[in-house]
Amino acid sequence: MAISHLCLSCGLDLARVRVSRDNALHAPIVTCPECGSSAIRRKPALVKAWRTAMRRRTAAWTLVAQLVVFNATMWSIAGLSWTISHQMQDDHQSLVQVIVDAFRLEGSPMRRFDNVGPWHVSIWIFASLAAGLWLGSALPHWKRWTPYVVWPIGLTTAFSAPFIGWAIWFPVAALAARPTYYDGPSMAGWLIGMQVLAASYVLTCIAVQAGPFARRSWDRSRARRWRKRLARRRLLRGGE
């Protein structure tokens, strides 16, 4: 039910009178149909504060969800890229050979347990494509070139986390006079892993192009749902 808005001249309730925008003041003006006097439609302070709080809550939850999706996708791709790169380094195979063997050796009884399986490759490809679709559709306020720069930086940082951890640990161990030795990945393994990341980045860039189309189709379907909901409400009100 609309909040009452009484006319100051005749006392008529103007709550259901439509608002017209003033061209000069850009203010919501309501004209009384009985006496012809005009008044400015103002939102109550309590309603305005409630709507502002709801908008901020929605924005906060949206930011949290975006951060969760960003980190989950980024770290999943980085971890699976390490697994695939280890397989490439151990068997001296290319990325294409590893992907083909992952599906070919599924039913073989001689398959080693440490081989890359079809689930690893499938999740790696799906995560790369999903990341591109998410970057192109869920972040329309970003500039066009931003996903192509931010995503590889974050992905490379996540992939290089073991090197970063060892780079931080060595000075700390030296200050604490604790003997330590390097047990992290080699530079050759890092370079092979960067090839896997480059292939994942290509898949992500392809999916980014489809992001705006997915966004527009989602907006159209949401607009159709809202129109149907408003039509049902008008019918329940008696065709007002």
Kindly describe this structure.
Helix content is 65%, strand content 4%. Strands 1-2-3 form a three-stranded antiparallel β-sheet, with no helix packed on it. By secondary structure, the chain is mainly alpha-helical. A hairpin with a 6-residue loop joins strand 2 (28-31) and strand 3 (38-40). The chain is built from six helices and three strands. The chain is elongated.
Q: Structural class of the helix and strand makeup?
A: mainly alpha
What is the β-strand count?
Answer: 3
Beta-strand residue percentage: under 5%
Number of domains: 2
Question: How would you characterize the largest beta sheet?
Answer: 3 strands, antiparallel
Termini Cα gap: 14 Å
Question: What radius of gyration results from the CA coordinates?
Answer: 29 Å
Share of helix among residues? 55-70%
Give short descriptive properties of this protein.
3 strands; mainly alpha; three-stranded antiparallel β-sheet; 6 helices; 240 residues; 2 domains
In short:
The chain is mostly helical and 240 residues long. It is built from 6 helices and 3 strands, in the order E-E-E-H-H-H-H-H-H.
Helix and strand topology:
Layout: E1 20-21, E2 28-31, E3 38-40, H1 45-91, H2 95-104, H3 118-137, H4 146-159, H5 161-175, H6 187-236
Antiparallel strand pairs: 1-2, 2-3
Helix pairs in contact: 1-3, 1-4, 1-6, 3-6, 4-6
